[in-house]
Amino acid sequence: MSERVDVEQHRADVAELLAELADRPTEEVSIHREVLGRVLARDVVAPVPLPRFRNSQMDGFAVRAADVASAGPDTPVTLPVAGDVAAAPGEPAPLEPGTAVRIMTGAPVPEGADAVVPVEDTDHVTFNGVDDSLTKVEVVRSRDAGEFVREPGSDVAEGAVVLRAGTVLAPHHVAAAAACGIARLTVRVPVSVAIVSTGSELVAPDGEPGPGQIWDANGPALAAAVRAAGGRVGLRLTVPDEPKILRMGLERAAALCDVVLTTGGVSQGAYEVVKEALPEVTFRSVAMQPGGPQGLGRVGGKPVLTFPGNPVSAQVSFIVFLRDILRQAGSLPPVEPVAAVLDAAVGSPDGKRQLLRGRWVAGAGARVAVVGGPGSHLVASMAAADVLIDVPAAATTLNEGTEVTTWPL
């Protein structure tokens, strides 16, 4: 390794390298496409009031409130039923004084009606299909003017802000836009990341490994991590330990994506293909475990980060060095650290910042326990964890009950 640095120095250098990602462009996308998780770039303003017209909040009878003012369980008011209004296109006829019309939820309230009596407050109790024989109704409870009538604009006024810029779009946001007749939203363009897994021993998870081969965990895991951080996977490659082939793949990745991310080939072995293919990149040893071997620089004019090949090392590297930068670029909030106390004592090598897999202890308040050992190949322990426990580089032993910083996974 050409140099040795601490975690914060490498974080600062990565942030400087990726500073160009901060000012993201915008694009318009259809609400019928993949908008979930995208970040609104500008306010969404209602072009019309909601509701657009007076409509019923209940299944029942549209009436004039004055006509049912005396209604009660012992003094029912009987009104002739002059018609039926469904939640359908069209405009109902005005309501004549002293009459009622059967009305369904969402149906337009006739002119002249100023209240809706729920069907439960009548002698019909419930509706079951169209009843042409319905000629009168007994109302057993009075209703004031305005009850169960939704007025235009009572939900959203025309010109009101429905969704604020910076909103991370979820299904209920899409519903609000659609209800206002808005079919396209302006969102931030996510950072496009190329993920390049290196190693002749790698086989896709749906492949059949031969002798000495393993399934590639880094490609799928980092692709998922990029998406969870608000980025987009622009390219995924698995490349054998051939520097020329890797170099061609990296240049293709740089031409297509904003950032290039590699895994493997950066340690001290005899076949470190990434180091051979990227002589212009700075490779260093970061004083952390797991994830010590790191690299950063440019390829084809685009930023490139090189992570170790061990699956846990790669995932920890992403969390420590890249996750919050992608989230910030996409206008997502950072993942904040959480204070906790250790459920049991832990040991740590002097001079290396340990990022141990941990899990919240059920029913024990803010207590965390270490999951598995420190090995960077222990993917099962990573799967069982929900936090990383941050052990400072200067600590060699932390006793039970010691307060520590944790990073949510």
UniProtKB/TrEMBL annotation:
Keyword Endoplasmic reticulum in record: no
InterPro entries membership: MoaB/Mog-like_dom_sf, MoaB/Mog_dom, MoeA-like, MoeA_C_domain_IV, MoeA_C_domain_IV_sf, MoeA_linker/N, MoeA_linker/N_sf
SUPFAM superfamilies in the record: MoeA C-terminal domain-like (SSF63867), MoeA N-terminal region -like (SSF63882), Molybdenum cofactor biosynthesis proteins (SSF53218)
Keywords assigned by UniProt, alphabetized: Magnesium, Metal-binding, Molybdenum, Molybdenum cofactor biosynthesis, Transferase
This protein's name: Molybdopterin molybdenumtransferase
Similarity annotation: Belongs to the MoeA family.
Record-annotated MoaB/Mog domain positions: 194-328
Metabolic or biological pathway, per its Swiss-Prot or TrEMBL entry: Cofactor biosynthesis; molybdopterin biosynthesis
EC number: 2.10.1.1
Function: Catalyzes the insertion of molybdate into adenylated molybdopterin with the concomitant release of AMP.
Catalytic activity: adenylyl-molybdopterin + molybdate = Mo-molybdopterin + AMP + H(+)
Domain of life: Bacteria
Pfam families: MoCF_biosynth (PF00994), MoeA_C (PF03454), MoeA_N (PF03453)
Class of the enzyme per the UniProt entry, highest EC level: transferase
Origin species: Promicromonospora umidemergens
Reported cofactor(s): Mg(2+)
